[in-house]
Design a protein that fits this description.
mainly alpha; 9 helices; globular
Length: 266
């Protein structure tokens, strides 16, 4: 947990550290431009398609989650898989809200989406930057005070990278979203996933100190002499899930790079 917190503070840390990096001319790929949360990775695909997909995915996941709660009770949220399933549902809810906001602004002409342009660095559609605007500020999605332009954008990206380590229907929904969206996937944000998992495990430890309950997963039982080995093995097994999504996004990035004959930085 300490290492994860240090990573978060280093890369998603204070505005002072972000300001220092901008002064040195360093781009911070961890931050999104406000348009990245609702536009697609390829300009030929209208953002309305991403919006429609997110709404359908949210409706599907919410329906399944509601059915589980009705059939099995609220106590199913006691399980890690159901908590992360809920997290995926939250991602599509937040993503749908930001897509609706972005598409509405685009229709009103507030986002400059009516002008044509291709980001040669990322291979995606962008609006032109006014001459008197700071290019560094716009590209990093920060306001004039060096703070994130919209904390919802950062929250969406964090929840997105937390939700990828999943299985079954939610993983399929997320894969479809990955194919359409233009979200970045900085690998350091695995620290959030580690933190999320550690908080769940510590919660289980504290709960079982005061309440006599069956462990949600047998390998969490601390009375077993093999408990440390189980904890280590399960933690390692989650890395391929996270790495799989990172590789898929890298493949998509390379494909867009070849399509536009220009390197794309994620």
């Amino acid at each position: 947990m300490v290492v994860s917190l240090l990573f978060i503070l280093k890369y998603d840390g204070s505005s002072k550290s972000r300001s220092h990096r901008r002064e040195n001319g360093q781009k911070k790929a961890a931050f999104l431009d406000k348009d990245d949360v609702w536009k697609t990775c390829y300009k030929a695909i209208h953002p309305n398609w991403l919006l429609a997909y997110r709404l359908i995915a949210f409706s599907l996941l919410l329906s399944l989650l509601t059915a589980d709660v009705v059939l099995h009770g609220v106590h199913i949220l006691y399980f890690y898989t159901q908590l992360t399933f809920t997290l995926a549902t939250v991602y599509f809810l937040l993503g749908s809200s930001l897509s609706i906001r972005g598409c509405l602004q685009s229709c009103k002409g507030d986002s400059g989406a009516s002008t044509d342009g291709v980001d040669t660095e990322r291979g995606t559609y962008i609006a032109p930057v006014p001459e008197n605007a700071s290019v560094l500020i716009v590209s990093n999605g920060l306001n004039s005070h060096g703070e994130p332009h919209d904390y919802c954008c950062l929250a969406l990206q964090i929840v997105f990278q937390l939700a990828v380590c999943m299985h079954s229907v939610n993983a399929i929904c997320l894969l479809g979203d990955v194919c359409l969206n233009r979200l970045r996937f900085p690998f350091f944000r695995i620290a959030y996933f580690v933190l999320w998992t550690c908080v769940f495990v510590i919660f289980q430890w504290i709960l079982h100190i005061f309440v006599s309950l069956r462990w949600p997963y047998p390998f969490l039982d601390l009375s077993s002499q093999y408990a440390p080995l189980w904890y280590f093995a399960v933690g390692i097994l989650h890395l391929p899930c996270y790495g799989m999504f990172a590789i898929l996004i890298r493949i998509k990035t390379c494909w867009l790079s070849r399509l536009f004959h220009s390197p794309i930085k994620m």
